[in-house]
Amino acid sequence: MADKSLNPFRQNDFSGGLVAGVNESLAPRGSVGLMINMDADVEIGSLTSRPGTFIIGGQMVAGNSILGLHNHIAGSTSTLFSAINDVGSATAVIYDQVGDVRVTGLTASKKVRMLTFNASTLIINGADAEQSYTAAGGFITTGGAFDLANIPGSNLNNLCTTFLDRVYLAGDTANPARLYYSGVSSGGAVSWTVGNGNIDIDVGNDKGAITALGRVPGYILIFKNRSMTRWNYSSAFPEELISYGTPSQESVVSAGGVCAFYSNSNEHDKGFFITNGGAPQPISHDNARPIRKLVDAIQVANEANIAGRAINNGFAWSVGDVTVDRQIYHNVELRYNRILNQWSVRTYPTKFTVYASYLDGQGRNVTVAGDNNGQVLELDRPERFVDYVTISGEAGESAINYDIRTHQEKHGLNNLKTVNDKLIFDTRNGKGSTPYVVVDGEEMIECPSLDRDVGEVKLPKNPTGSYFQYGLKGTVQGMRISLKEIEVPNIVASPSV
After folding, report:
1. 312 confidence band (pLDDT: 50, 70, 90)
2. Contact present, 223 and 280 (Cβ < 8 Å)
3. What is the rounded CA–CA span in Å between residue 147 and residue 170?
4. Which listed residue, 178, 332, 380, 434, has the most CB atoms within 10 A of its CB?
């Protein structure tokens, strides 16, 4: 029998984003098996390389992680505070955005949480005396809008939020299940002696201590290591909503009327969840567009330091290094567009440890990230398509690497097949990119680089195998590359035996 020519393969829809952990025969239309530093929600149907980063101020302490990040806004005043271990890491300090040290002598390596309310910012870390800040009065440790001298918990609370015009605190190691609340704000201040109180959340159970606080319309969400409870000021109902908790406050992001978080409460059901106050629903697994491969690759040592942020239509989490299919990806950020139900993956030169919004001196409200190299970086800076890096004290720029790969494709048959002659890629600004084919999940065959946006590339050899993946990789700077279509025009199946 003669070889049989098969229909050409084309993928010209990438709107499904990344799907990792599903049988390829069930892969959603428009999805891909690998997608690094390419966004699927810029031009729907295409993939576009991500924007770059730029530093806010300057590097504070090289090699040290940002422990807390917060934008104090009061009227026309906007100040960005960053907490970090000082040189030598004996203590922690707080910088502002122009590089001035504003607070010294904090306990080293303690995460610092901050909250602005009534034009004042509360600063807590669960070890040192609580402080607050105003532009007019500076930093104080007694009185002020937060009634500092009467805060319960003996400086042990390290979690804070507001709800129904009250301040809430938790994390007291002496009372790990206790949620404290202030009196209702009056005259620009709250009281911890009038109208205040506390509630113990599922005291005595085996779900661990309170680890995080979140908010959705109508409720505070109280997370323990292995549970989540709702509270509407008058009652908690039910006592334990569901056995999903979170290891860290930084993984919990409230935005758009919902709260999203990372949970490792159950070994075989860990991942990212979303809730509007009801039972949390998984968004990273147990659905039509999972990324279970990446979730399972999150290192246990990194789970307590996962940090999340809100993006335009969803959420993103910094999860550290992951190894997938024998490939290591460094400083990974997983991004979820909840409108499109679409995942993508980014990598960066450094690991992000905390995020914040920042109203900068130009009146722009931008997203910033504190990293593990003493820097605060603006993310997705318009018209900047390189990453800011500091190496040995020297500022520089790093090109953005990208890699896109289709799902494993059998072209409708289980026979051995041969891909002949050439591949065709439709890109914008894709000149210099490297097309490639992966055969049976093992051999990678790289083609000559594209010499034009819509270009044919000659295969260095005609690969034979049971299934193939078609990819495009490279680096980009000064522009954004877009991928619109991959075409494989000549595929031949071997005769059946």
Report:
1. confident
2. no
3. 16
4. 332
Collapse the DSSP code of 7 into the 3-class scheme (helix H, G, I; strand E, B; otherwise coil) and give the result.
Answer: coil
CA 94 to CA 61: how far, in whole Å? 11
b/e per residue 227-250 (b: at least 16 CB within 10 A): bbbbbeeeebeeebbbebbbbbbb
What is the pLDDT confidence band of residue 497, given thresholds at 50, 70 and 90? very low
Residue that the structure tokens 């201590």 belong to: 209
pLDDT of residue 138: 97
Torsion (CA) 433, 437, 443, 445 in degrees, nearest 10: -50
CA 33 to chain CA mean position, Å:
20
For the stretch 187-234, pLDDT in tens is 999 999 999 999 999 887 788 999 999 999 999 999 999 999 999 998
Mean pLDDT in residue range 365-372: 97
Residue 72, CA distances (Å) to 82, 83, 92, 116, 123 in order: 11, 13, 19, 6, 11
* DSSP 8-state code for residue 285: S
Per DSSP, the three-state class of 304 is helix
| Nearest alpha-carbon partner for 143 in 130, 156, 126 | 130
Pairing assessment for the beta strands 31-32 and 17-18 based on DSSP bridges? parallel
Give residue for tokens 């990678």.
444
394 and 59 Cβ atoms separated by less than 8 Å: no
Mean pLDDT of the chain: 95
For residue 252, what are its two tokens? 């919990």
CA 455 to mean position of chain CA atoms:
35
Distance CA 57, CA 152 (A): 36
* Omega before 238 within 30 of 0, i.e. cis: yes
Q: Compute the distance between CA of residue 55 and CA of residue 337 in angstroms, rounded to an integer.
A: 26
Residue 94, strand partner residues: 83, 103
